[in-house]
Specification:
single chain, 311 residues, mainly alpha, 0% strand
Length: 311
């Protein structure tokens, strides 16, 4: 198994780990978390959804809907993704965001595959499920741009959501192919140059469902920590939309650090069915990507601490 495939597995597994870890502190404040846990660092379930330890929420479940559709079709078919969302919603998931529900219901009732622009669509629901699209489009930025926007607009149609999805996808691509921290920081700066609201150098600790706060939280902790575990612990202890910030941060940190740095105590706690499926689908998605037929020629950065730069 090559380094890129290893990192793809770590990215999807990291997403599920961040989701399961963050579900415990979702909607809590940092003060409430400190009072109850001091530092929340274990996958223990609970939270407002009363989950069993290792169970995941809509972040992982919607990502699986996207991944299954791509692998089932052997390529990109937006209607299959939308159909999977409908089946998932009809299955009465433990949680579903209001904007996602609205978009899925609109597709169910009218067949619309694109929501109209709305000022209310700057949430993080499209970003949280973007990882499978990034894995499938690895090696083709133009394809990433088309597919990322299409999947986003199924439920969320807002330029801030679009920009976050595209930047996150580019960062995943770069991390999978061995980019160092400086390269990833440059991509974040490009986002801020276009949309200054995403500026995170003076991070204020806001970690709600607004996509700007989500990106600020993820980027702050990714660039101010030096390993997967510390990154995720920092993120989920901000509370707010902690399952989603945890999932997105876990995907990025997993892609950057690789399988060896995922804490074993966490991977053992994760639902084994979810663990197996996300890893299998990650391999399949990269296998369908342009990268699989035309990988880049330069040597890839090995997943070693000696290659980590400082931001």
């Amino acid at each position: 198994m090559n380094i890129v495939t290893d990192r793809a597995r770590a990215a999807f597994l990291g997403l599920a780990l961040g989701d399961a870890l963050g579900a415990t502190t979702e909607f809590m404040t940092p003060t409430e978390i400190r009072n109850q846990y001091k530092v929340h660092r274990n996958i223990i379930g609970g939270g407002w959804l009363h989950l069993k330890a290792g169970k995941v929420t809509d972040d992982t479940e919607m990502s699986l809907c996207v991944a299954r559709a791509i692998v089932e079709r052997g390529g990109w078919q937006l209607s299959t993704i939308a159909d999977n969302f409908v089946s998932w919603m009809k299955g009465k998931p433990i949680d579903i965001g209001s904007t996602c529900r609205k978009g899925i219901r609109d597709y169910l009732l009218s067949g619309n595959l694109e929501q109209p622009y709305s000022d209310n669509d700057a949430g993080n629901g499209a970003l949280m499920r973007l990882l499978p699209t990034a894995l499938f489009t690895l090696g083709d930025e133009a394809l990433l741009q088309r597919c990322a926007i299409e999947q986003a607009h199924l439920t969320h149609h807002h330029p801030l959501s679009d920009a976050a999805c595209l930047t996150f996808g580019k960062m995943i691509h770069a991390a999978l192919c061995g980019a160092d921290r400086f390269c990833l920081h440059a991509l974040a700066r490009d986002l801020i140059a276009a949309y200054p609201k995403f500026h995170f150098n003076d991070y204020r600790g806001h970690a709600g469902g607004y996509v700007v706060e989500t990106m600020q939280t993820v980027l702050h902790f990714f660039f101010t920590t030096s390993n997967f575990e510390d990154c995720l612990i920092g993120i989920v202890n901000q509370g707010g939309d902690a399952d989603t910030t945890g999932a997105i941060g876990g995907a990025l940190a997993g892609a950057f650090y690789g399988m060896e740095e995922l804490p074993r105590i966490w991977t053992k706690k994760l639902d084994p069915v979810v663990s197996e499926e996300v890893q299998r689908l990650a391999v399949a998605l990269v296998g369908l990507s342009p990268f699989a037929t035309c990988p880049p020629s330069p040597g890839l950065r090995p997943p070693s601490p000696s290659w980590r730069g400082e931001s």
